[in-house]
Amino acid sequence: MIEYADQFPKATWDTLVMLFWSGLVSIILGLILAVVVVITRKDGIAPNKWVFWILDKIINLFRAIPFIILVPALAFLSRFVFHTTIGITGAMVPLIVGTVPFMARQFESAIMEIPEGVVEASISMGMTNWQIITQVYLRENIPGMIRGVTITLIALIGQIAIVGAVGAGGLGDMAIRYGNGRRMTDITYVVILLILIIISIIQLIGDRLVAKFTR
């Protein structure tokens, strides 16, 4: 394993890069989707059954597709957007498409936990829909949103390991190429340890932020 030790820093960095960018985009898109789904539902502040129905079904559809199937299915889209299906760039499309629905549901659940009376009070005070979104939906349950982000980012680590099997690089790629392909189980164990460390750091940061924003 010593001769491959210098590859661990790059593999770890590649994993972190994919985690950061796919996680960031998924948080933004997931939050937008969650807000639109919440406000357009039948009892929302801007009900629209068709918008709600379409987005709800799209989210359910992509949540139901196993990620290992989603990766090759979206190869054409990766090629169209980034002109490649390999490497970190080629992994971005399936990672984002596979993560956004889960992130959206986590945000939606957090928003729906806000007491209905708070929203009704905001409406009676004459707040606009935009004010309710920014000052109520996005502020009244920040701990719940942080918990949702933490859970989804940890799940995203597993998806990043999967895309490593199709040439995206990262720790998953090392485990497949050396740990499995060359029967170097010591490399597999090191990869597992590094992934556990990353997950533990994410969980620790999430727990600290939840504690800080819990009233």
TrEMBL record:
Annotated PROSITE patterns: ABC_TM1
Listed CDD domains: TM_PBP2 (cd06261)
Upper classification of the organism: Bacteria, Bacillati, Bacillota, Erysipelotrichia, Erysipelotrichales
Places the protein is found: Cell membrane
Major place of residence: membrane
Gene3D superfamilies listed in its UniProt record: MetI-like
Species of origin: Faecalibaculum rodentium
Domain ABC transmembrane type-1: 12-206
SUPFAM superfamilies xrefs: MetI-like (SSF161098)
Protein name listed in UniProt: ABC transmembrane type-1 domain-containing protein
Topology term for the membrane: Multi-pass membrane protein
Domain of life: Bacteria
